[in-house]
Design a protein that fits this description.
heterodimer, A: alpha/beta, Glutaredoxin, five-stranded mixed sheet, 23 helices, 18 strands, B: alpha+beta, 2 domains, four-stranded mixed sheet, 7 helices, 11% strand
Amino acid sequence: MLIRISDDALARALGADKLAAAFAAKGHEVHRVSSWGMHWLEPLVDIDGKGFGPATLNDVDAILDGSSAKAIGEIAQHSFIAGQQRLTFARAGKTRPTSLDDYAATGGWAGLDRARAIGAAETVAEVLASGLRGRGGAGFPAGIKWQTVANAPSPKKYIVCNADEGDSATFADRMVMEGDPFQLIEGMAIAGHAVGADQGYIYVRSEYPDAISKLNAALAQCAGIIAPFRCEVRVGAGAYVCGEETSLLNSLEGKRGEVRAKPPLPALEGLFGKPTVVNNVLTLAAIPHILTEGGASLYDSLGVNRSKGTMPIQLAGNIKHGGLYEVAFGITLGELVNDIGGGTESGRPVKAVQVGGPLGAYLSPSQFDIPFDYEAYAAVDALIGHAGITVFDDSADMGGMARFAMEFCAAESCGKCTPCRIGAVRGVELIDRILAGGRVRDTLELAPQMHNVPSKTRTAEQEIELLTDLCDTMKFGSLCALGGFTPYPVMSALKHWPEDFTGNTAVAEAAE
Amino acid sequence: MTDKATLIGEILAAHAHQEGPLLPILHDVQHALGCVDAESEALIANGLNLSRADVHGVVSFYHDYSSAADPRPVVQICRAESCKSRGVEALMDSAKAAAGARVKLHTVYCLGLCSSGPNARVGDTLYARLDAAALTQVIENA
């Protein structure tokens, strides 16, 4: 019997390797395939399209004789899968990630072949027509970026894939690299062909050892297919800020991962000062499909307003049915969290949902009717980012989460600009004082010589005013999104759950 | 030449063909020696025609490089938002007790298994859906 079990890092972390070995020991052929993305069912055993999960070693015999209570029926018919529109993740669960044969047999390289047939200028035009926007977070139209690089006169150009997916709640990049690495490489080769670049780099974070080894295995096999384009994997070194494109370029050059001021745009002066396309994994992985016959117009027909195509949304945190859900833009947050995600795993009411990773706003259930759309989120001071969704139940302490946002920014700031480097530290202190109920004068201020300092303590309300002001400075004064977007989680938490900040007023009252 | 100089010379030679080779070189040195100390920094700087300050600036910037070797086994525990929402903070007291002085607990922000936290990593092995007992087990086996 042919058994399919994922070799995705998540399945492996949950014991898929031992499970696969157990089936193999009983004389069955085991194929290690990519993950379907139904993470609450991992490790998922797939026999002729029928699924069993989450499987443990104790379930092996029952699964083989068909009596297992963990049967979920036809995997493809499962409501979580049937409701999706999978373009980027079309092969998820179906192919062996590093099998060149599997990739070619499922439409692989068709996009690259067609791009070569229609020529560079027409390839850029197809990407423009698809309406594809950068999936890293900023949502900049990919076609315009490519056009800029294509038009830049230079004998040397680069394609850089940003695979430094450091946001909590995001794992779509990891799943592409581990589950369908050839698709990403094909997308980069198409980009290289379109803009006239012959060298590509994939900058992967060091926290993804499986993705690194699979990309290297894939690159070794397909070097002849993508030639004259060459591609190399580079491993990050644990700096979150290197997910910012200019900081990533510095890191690739072997420097500290400090952010560069823009302009000049990386499209004109990027890696080693040369015109460079820097795209996120999901952007580049969407390209092969767009370049197939009719792919661009299909992409453009999906989605809403200026948010075109599909988005691989990642359902994470305290959610019953967590995993990867690729769907056209326009789906509401409520549908994602309640209908598809099944609410919280703990069974308690949803309190807050953070969309867009550590720099994304916390949304309250009262905002569950917002459609998944870049502009709709921006209109309520929130962001889609890399489409990671973290669900919190009613035990969450939002004051603590706001403090963590500042703490995270302080820990990961590159130090180049003051609002981020110092603002984040002051932000932690301010939130601590707000949580303590206000600011009490310190020993120095109480000394008689310091009679000019204000004699009153500052109340929590006055501290909140200062925090609001600080957030304003960080938002408009920071060089990049790390300092610039940290105010989103802080201010949204303060706006929706003020009671989590001012529950303890004992200090201020005692000091009066 | 010292052993270290020979080793670093070999690593430098292996990366000679690369553009911007400093990070890959530092990864190799960190992996081989468990740290990038001042002597290594000087050797790398010399080999790449950089100043020692340049190299030290890079080593000190990234979390993955350390200036002194730590013989203890390392258990990385994710404490980012998704793992927090799934209760990692409640596991930290028992984790610290289990680690004691023998194991180094290292906080990381995100291992990319966010639908199934709390998560940990030892070497290149990942662990997901940990509860207090499972995390203690991971730490004791590290």
